Amino acid sequence: MEEYLNKEFFEWVDCVAGILKDAEKQATIVYHNDADGICSSAILSRVCEYFGLKTELICIEKVNPDIIEIIHADRDGIIIYTDLAGLAAEAIDRINAGRGKVIIIDHHPAKEIESDSVFVLNPELSGISGDIFVSASTLNYIFFRAIAGDEAEKCAYLAVVGSVGDYHDRYGGVLGFDRFALNEAMRMKQVKIMIDGMKERYYIDFFGEYADVVAERLTTLGAVGYEEKGYQLGLKACFEGFNGATMEIVKRLERIREEKFEKMVEFLKTNLKQEKHVQWFHIGDSFSPMGVKVVGEFCELIKDMTFVDDSKYLIGFQSMPKVVPDLGEIDWNVVKMSGRVPTPLERKIFKGEAPGLDYLVPKASEIVGAFADATHKIAAATIVDGGKEEEFIEAFERLVENEVSGG
Ligand SMILES: [Mn+2]
Questions:
Q1: What separation in Å is there between the alpha carbon of 35 and the centre of ligand 1?
Q2: Residue 231 forms part of a structural domain
Q3: Which of residues 183, 209, 235 is at a domain's end?
Q4: pTM over 0.90
Q5: Distance 311 CA to ligand 1 centre (A)
Q6: Cβ contacts of residue 224 below 8 Å, gap of 6+?
């Protein structure tokens, strides 16, 4: 790994590894319910095993203060957040109030934090784009690699699946640190590259399948099967492969999603709300029992459909279910917001001619007192209080307006 010049980044890896090394007996891993999150938790569970820690795994869709409260209320030992919480370090530090050590291993945009108990491992903080060069799985892999050396190499294929799950192969193949993990996986003969048109595809020997296919299965289990804890099957598959029963469940979940999506597309053809810069919709709980990650997938699916205006941002809301499967019932009224952009607008954003969602969503969230955690330039999510949806849209509109008129 030394061939990379980002010394500061690797010093952090060492520092955070030191904290985990000192952890006592118990660790809690809080992870995101998509392919990258599931692969991250798989690698991290190996890390904890390596240190002889007993681990509890908690899969969540979104970080928010209510969830942080519950997680930190009565858990001993170290708590590790991964593939989420980039921007939540301050909130976590405040709620944790020095009770125990916390590590946040994430690749989403993050804020620097001064704390004796919360430590952030995030490439964004040393100027490396986590959206392009490092998936959470890769980050966890590098972390494991720094700790355990060769022992970690067995997990290299999981970093590849996680990276592809977050579409880090979108420029034709995975790059940077993701590429480093890929190279290791190839050296270990876990992965072969196939060139398919404009893109590389990574055949994972262990699964007998391509990384994109595996990633999709994991995300289906985690997101569409969220309320029935499908992510646990995904995690199991990371080390045992997909058996017949798991594949049946994947197929059933895919059918549920397809039916719900088709219905919603038909509805939106005449019901998409239009503002000056934004077009939006509210699903309510009609996607239940699917998790709220699905509204993002749905936006992704429709963003270039003909009934969608290709010059406007696309925003969808979905009510958060009142049960977090690994934590129980939560008394809240919150709504997940997902933002995407049609391809022509995406180009403008990358050329710097229009503001990206990584600016707009955290800003608009702040204005309505909400909590953004996963934000990229062309895809972002936040949670707002139920009833604040229109206020959010108005704030978002104003922000775009200011950027456009202010130049
Ligand atoms: Mn990720």
A1: 8
A2: no
A3: 209
A4: no
A5: 27
A6: 230, 253, 254, 256, 257, 290, 291, 294
